[in-house]
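Example record

One chain of 130 residues, shown exactly as stored in the release files.
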Amino acid sequence: MTDLVLERMPTAALPGWARICAVDDLESCWGEAALVNGTQVALFRLPGGRIHAVDNRDPRTSASVMARGLIGSRGGTTTLASPLHKEVYSLATGECLTGGQPNLPVYETRVVDGCIEVAALAPMEPAMLQ
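Predicted structure tokens for this chain:
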């Protein structure tokens, strides 16, 4: 297994975004954790160049483990299963698909000049995700 050390890259000129790492630094379908303004965020690069960022804290246990979650799918929805109790969340919206659990906060991402940036503001509200 390769250890990936994400170094703080120069921040983009636009406020509200935190530059994390180059897209090529992430392996496909494998999560990595990054610290964004004091919050641990789990980053995932999926086939087709899709980038997702979710809170690294498991909503059920508060353990910082979601970067080690399992990527999968349910219907047409890309999912992330908690490595602890296997609750399944929509990777795009954070909705808990196994019922009754709190949702997983998700963060807006973008790629600028080959680098992943995460919105340094609050998690996206469910209305923004539809």
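Notes: The CA atoms of residues 5 and 54 lie 19 Å apart.
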